[in-house]
Amino acid sequence: ARDHVLSLVSVPLVAAGDLFGVVNVETGPPVRLDETDLASLRLVGDRLASALALARERERLARRVQAFERLTVFAQSLTATLEPEALFERIPSLVAAVVPCDAVSLTIRDDASGEYRVVAMPGGDPRFVGASIRPGEGITGRAILDGQLVVNEHLHRSSFPVALKAATVPDVVSIAAVPLAQEESVIGAIALIRYERGNPFDDL
């Protein structure tokens, strides 16, 4: 900051209760900001905050439109085959196209044994396809047990399912898992994994 500042005004950029930032205006001798300048800067701050809020809303709408377009493609592609093995291969990549992520894990209940097993894991460690996931174990197991979406933005390796602790992935990941429910029965779960820190799953 400059040493010789005669006056300084900081104007918060607030719209609909959201703080977007701050505008600082400072002057040096002999110019001094007065009440007229303050009123003008308040007006500038209000207008700028409104413009930023509008731009953010437009960005949100654009993202929603893109998401719905991807969902349409997802639905069309999903019905291209009803063969289980072919679906196991297609589902993870189709899901990753709807919600960007680094890896997708698809876990399905084996009707014969009743065990939940990983049937596909593109982007993950392929050595663990076939691994057993117990209900309540790890994020995928919790989604299966609770029958609802489970999200953990900082899942450490120590909380991985026992069968996956040695997987070649970062030690801390962001993961969102959702159960695959058929009537009142949970037949599996799909988990989306992000390796990059600071890239959380948002509401959309």
Biggest beta sheet summary: 5 strands, antiparallel
Number of helices: 3
Total count of strands: 7
Percent strand equals 25-35%
Report the uncertain regions: none
Helix content: 25-40%
The SS-based structural class is alpha+beta
Shape: elongated
Q: What report would you give on this structure?
A:
The protein has 204 residues and is α+β, with helices and mostly antiparallel strands. Helix 1 packs antiparallel against helix 2 (84-98). It has helices at residues 35-78, 84-98, 138-146, and strands at 7-15, 18-27, 103-109, 116-120, 150-156, 172-182, 185-194. The longest helix is centred in the N-terminal third of the chain and has 44 residues, at 35-78. A five-stranded antiparallel sheet has the order 4-3-7-6-5, with helices on both faces.
